[in-house]
Predict the structure of Prevent-host-death protein.
Amino acid sequence: MKSITIYPKNEKQKNLLQSLLEEMKVRYIIDKTEKNASMTQEEFFAKIDSSIQQAEKGETKKISIEEQKALLGL
């Protein structure tokens, strides 16, 4: 069975979802780390726009093939 990832907006939503899942006897995991915090769609597009502007201004850095492989663990 495929899993579903849900990102509640606040503690109230989290608690409600948790109660619902317990009532339905659905197995779930609450990730304690903050690394899964997602950005809003507006934040995502703002980052993309910022990156495009940096590229248009020439504010990019070229890395060698060896550096690319090292970064990607190849």
In short: The chain has one domain: 11-72. The helical segments are 11-23, 41-56, 65-72. Residues 11-72 form one domain.
